[in-house]
Design goal:
heterodimer, A: alpha/beta, Rossmann fold, 2 domains, 7-stranded mixed beta sheet, 5-stranded mixed beta sheet, 13 helices, 14 strands, B: alpha/beta, two-stranded antiparallel sheet, globular, disordered N terminus
């Protein structure tokens, strides 16, 4: 039985997920820079300090490595911390803790210790925040065995991925695209936890597979709408997780449409789009009627002026063009 | 002794002596086994520094947690991890305390709340603070002891953790093993302020310096600190001034220090220092040393035999323990 839908923003859906986790499990707490009194850099945690108190909504110093490591230790010792890092660019300051500790401890300890930690952070461009607040580095984390990498692109996933991530015995990174926070829509009032290991077809079509995730999903869906008017029907694959990658959904879509365009806001070189392209050619080369195409960010640090920032990113128009090219 | 604790019983002193001899002989055996290529990889001996792990561990309860570095054979041994499991780990065998996955630098034992040896300098500090945060949030009166070398004081994570630990009143005992050299770089060449304990003090942490070649003084300092911490006094810092008699690792020709300096420090060897003092005060009886050596020799010979007959993990299990079994 599903309750009637409510109007909600992506930001509020993220907050509802956090609140739900804090209510469900006393071991859960949130920590990060300005998550308490300020309400979160992007307003996600607004009001939670008043509701849950300073023990569970912990403002931290500007010490990404320090508080991420604290999250790892607390997770190893029975808690279920949610660490918020303001943006993916700042997470590089915590790379040592994430890559050298969180991702390795289960293995190095022969399975004796796990790190059931969730790290949330904003990613992506589109707000004219220039080259130190706009990058899409989730693909770097998807390179690392021991981590799980989630990219909620819908209200349902923003609301529901967190709890599933917290129940996971291993470290999970959740990337929230900055352009999605203001996205509003309707969501079931009783929306709850969702799976974190399956890609989902957001639109079905027979001619070409648009494979994407996160902020680019909505551009791909828009492109699919335009292409449909031109008589081209697209599968739109929302990866949802970059690690583990749901290879079977990707391959079954490509085997059906025989054409693939991968849209990734990361840079092309060494990106998750390169990985997906490789998996397709490794596993479904003989199903392809055209080379795999990619729409990625230009190989440039994201520039400040709007026209250059827009030119640097995958856009609906470039996705349409790429899809038409693989069909020509 | 700088701070003779005359109330210390003959029994407890003999135990300290026994532990230091165990650690010394164990590492001497490791050196031998490294030469015969039974042990490979990087191996860091702490010969000369045995008083620190011995003195500090004797101040902890089984419920407390320990975080150590890559120079941690002694810490694991004195904490109670069986010599057999440690030696098997050095060999890379399945029966090792990390099931062979960690080796010399990554000894773990959940049973002994030994949260591991960490080989990124400074990387264990935030994690230790996190273990302590979990205890504090649950209202447990446990202490987390975090060992690291003076080289860590140059890392940002050291400072981030000092700050956070005091700010959040975390029950951590920071034990700095100041052996004067970060690999081959002498303290004065890497620190503008070589007084390490003063750095902790500057974060308003309770901090003291102790002669790390004196096991009784080290133990007394650790007992004071642990009592303070357990009573809610917040984190404490002990800087133990010590010296490693051997090379940094097995690949170190020791070009950075003189033989004379090493010889000078060997005069302060913590083992003869304790036994000599016990002898002079009548606490050591004829046969005590021989009996310690005999039992240690038997224990180590058992450990080597155990490691020798240990099994190699089947290659089919290569990717085990990257994620929890239920997940992935």
């Amino acid at each position: 039985m599903s309750a009637s839908p409510i109007q909600i923003s992506y930001r509020e859906a993220c907050r509802a997920g956090i609140r739900d986790a804090l209510q469900r499990d006393q071991r859960v707490f949130l920590m990060g820079e300005d998550v308490g009194r300020y309400g979160g850099c992007y307003g996600v945690s607004k009001g939670l300090l008043e509701e849950f108190g300073a023990e569970r909504i912990r403002d931290t110093p500007l010490s990404e490595s320090g508080f991420t490591g604290v999250g790892i230790g607390a997770a190893m010792n029975g808690m279920r911390p949610i660490v918020e890092i303001m943006t993916v660019n700042f997470s590089l300051l915590a790379l040592d803790q994430i890559v050298n500790n969180a991702a390795t401890i289960r293995h190095m300890s022969g399975g004796q210790f796990g790190v059931p930690l969730v790290i949330r952070m904003a990613t992506g461009a589109g707000r004219q925040l220039a080259a130190q607040h706009s990058h899409s580095l989730e693909g770097i984390y998807a390179h690392i065995p021991g981590l799980k990498v989630l990219t909620p692109a819908t209200l349902e996933d923003a609301r529901g991925m967190l709890w599933t991530a917290l129940e996971d015995p291993d470290p999970v990174l959740i990337f929230e695209h900055v352009m999605l926070y203001n996205m509003s829509g309707s969501l079931a009032a009783d929306a709850g936890p969702v799976s974190i290991d399956k890609a989902i077809l957001r639109r079905e079509g027979k001619d070409v597979s648009l494979i994407t995730y996160g902020g680019s999903l909505h551009k791909a869906v828009e492109a699919a709408g335009q292409l449909s008017q031109q008589g081209i029907e697209c599968d739109v694959v929302d990866l949802r997780a970059l690690r583990p990658l749901d290879e079977s959904t990707i391959l079954s879509s490509v085997r059906k449409t025989r054409r693939a365009v991968i849209i990734d806001e990361g840079w092309r070189t060494g990106s998750i789009s390169a990985e997906i392209s490789a998996r397709i050619t490794e596993n479904a080369l003989w199903s392809l009627d055209a080379p795999v195409a990619r729409v990625c960010s230009a190989e440039v640090p994201i520039p400040y002026p709007r026209h250059l920032e827009e030119a640097a990113l995958p856009q609906t128009a470039t996705i349409v063009t790429a899809a038409r090219q693989v069909l020509s | 002794m700088s701070e003779p604790k005359l109330h210390l019983s003959r029994d407890s002193l003999l135990k300290l002596l026994h532990q230091m001899v165990r650690v010394r002989r164990f590492e001497e055996k490791c050196d031998e086994l490294y030469q015969s290529e039974k042990i490979r990889g990087f191996m860091h001996l702490a010969i000369g520094e045995e008083a620190i792990c011995t003195g500090v561990m004797a101040a902890l309860s089984p419920d407390d947690a320990v975080v150590a570095t890559y120079r941690e054979h002694g810490h694991a041994l004195v904490r109670g991890v069986p010599a057999t499991a440690i030696m098997a780990e050095m060999f890379g065998k399945l029966e090792g305390c990390s099931h062979g996955r960690g080796g010399s630098m990554h000894l773990f034992s959940a049973e002994h709340r030994f949260f591991g040896g960490y080989a990124i300098v400074g990387g264990g500090l935030p994690l230790a603070a996190g273990l302590a945060l979990a205890d504090r949030m649950r209202g447990e009166r446990r202490v987390t002891a975090c060992f690291f070398g003076e080289g860590a004081a140059a890392e940002g994570e050291f400072h981030e953790t000092m700050n956070l630990a005091v700010l959040w009143n975390l029950p951590v005992l920071f034990v700095c093993e100041n052996n004067l050299y970060a690999m081959g770089t002498r303290l004065e060449l890497s620190e503008s302020e070589p007084d390490i304990h003063g750095k902790a003090q500057s974060y308003r942490m309770h901090s003291e310096v102790v002669d790390g070649m004196d096991v009784v003084a080290t133990n007394a300092a650790a007992m004071r600190a642990v009592t303070r911490i357990r009573n809610g006094g917040g984190p404490s810092f002990i800087e133990c001034r010590t010296y490693r008699f051997r090379a940094h690792s097995m690949f170190d020709p020791q070009l950075y220090r003189t033989k004379a300096e090493v010889e000078e420090w060997k005069k302060r060897d913590p083992i003869p220092r304790l036994s000599g003092w016990m002898d002079s005060t009548g606490l050591l009886r004829p046969g005590d040393l021989a009996s310690i050596e005999q039992s240690v020799e038997a224990e180590i010979s058992d450990a080597v035999a155990f490691a020798e007959v240990g099994r190699w993990e089947p290659v089919e299990q290569l990717t085990k323990d990257v994620y929890a079994e239920s997940a992935a």
